[in-house]
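hey so i finally got around to running the thing on that chain from the lab meeting. sorry it took forever, my laptop kept dying and i had to restart like 3 times. anyway pasting the input first so we r on the same page abt which one it is
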Amino acid sequence: MDFYAQPIGIYIRVVAIISLMLGLNDAARLLGVGLGEVSPVATMGMTGFVYLGIFGLARLFAAVGLWIKASWGAVLLVGATSVELGLYLFGNADVSMSALGFAVRLVLLASILIIFILSIRLERARAAD
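ok and heres what got predicted. didnt touch it at all, straight out
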């Protein structure tokens, strides 16, 4: 995929920033920011804590990958976001998110899929020339 094309490059950087913000939000939740004296493990349970750690770390790595315009960043973001949304939609009690968090993750997933489609169209246009 050609992530170095100018219009796609700017779009990728915006998606990388959104992914970074979600990853940092997950890290803050893991550290218990805003919970006071209550442990985040006690609040979420051990499985929820591990899930949040994995998804947050994957989003942070994906943000770095997208920022340097590596294709593995997009793949990592699609994988992590798809699994997280799938677990949430199938009713896993260990994965919790607000309606806004769900909407942001859906937009993030749609954005990455649009990047894939745009890069494929650009490759086809170059091949036709």
